[in-house]
Amino acid sequence: MNDSQAQTHCRVCSNLSRLVFEKTLYWGEIVPFFRCGSCGHLQTCLPTWLTQSYQAKYAEEDTGMADRCLWTAQTTVAFALRTDIGPSELCLDWGTGTGLFVRFCRDAGLNVYGYDPFADALFSREFLCKPDQLDSRWSLITAFEVAEHFSDPSMEFAKMFAMRPSAILFSTLLYQGQGADWWYIVGNGQHVSFYTEQGLRILGKRHGYNLTTDGLELHLFSRKKYTPRFLRQVRKKRETWSRKYLRAHGSRLISDSEAIRSRIIKEESDKLARKD
């Protein structure tokens, strides 16, 4: 590898990143990883293997998906309780995947919709946001275990910041100098961006947002300033506080079902009327 191939530009702060190690993916492809000398961000080269990475068989190793949807939903509802996000305010889950997170949040009373142009949100298809609806006024945007999949973090976060939410609550494990054997650098090649606290702070400041982090994996971009202790409390007390939100506002489980049933009945009725 020559000098030009051993360096690239950081896709967070645009400064110089140098090759630090390589990783062999499941099917034998060797991927170089570059670390920014300024913000510390770790990234792969621009990924050309993502079609291979997202084959269905590679999703099977993520056995923590359901549990992750549960604890992040509880954390989000607890955050809504503590920041006075009411049941009528709009919330958006960026990269919603199966939609299970959205369903858990709505079951707890929070008015959450999902957005994901690449996935079939099996559990919340009725509550998917279309691309032309992204200009809605979102009180909160969530993005749990999504940021590490961003090929261009600056561009992807800019899309969320452009909607001017009061806060963006998200998770991704912080990079702190781990090597190629770090478990978060998965062999299927789906994780291509690994953030430092400094890198995240740069992304937020660029758009006028403060960063709060628990120092490990839970992070918050917000207009208002919060303390790391507040964020840790939200996670620690998520079960208690999410139940309190549910008691105060009631679940959307029945009302969502009734709304979907009404839509189906109307659609079928219209079809019969057209046949007549």
Order of helical and strand elements: EEEEHHHEHEEHEEHEEHHH
Instruction: Give average pLDDT, whole number.
Output: 95
Main beta sheet strand tally, sense and closure: 6 strands, mixed
- Read across the widest sheet, the strand sequence of neighbours is 6-5-7-8-11-10
Q: Based on the structure given, which CATH architecture of the domain at 63-173 and 196-253 is correct?
A: 3-Layer(aba) Sandwich
User: Percent of residues in beta strands?
Assistant: 15-25%
Q: Which CATH class of the domain at 63-173 and 196-253?
A: Alpha Beta
Shape: globular
Helix/strand structural class: alpha/beta
With helices defined by DSSP (H or I, 4 residues minimum), what is the helix count? 9
Portion in helices: 25-40%
Straight-line distance between termini: 71 Å
Q: Write out the CATH superfamily name of the domain at 63-173 and 196-253.
A: Vaccinia Virus protein VP39
Instruction: Provide the low-confidence segments as ranges.
Output: none
CATH fold annotation of the domain at 63-173 and 196-253: Rossmann fold
Mind telling me the C-alpha Rg?
20 Å
| Strand tally | 11
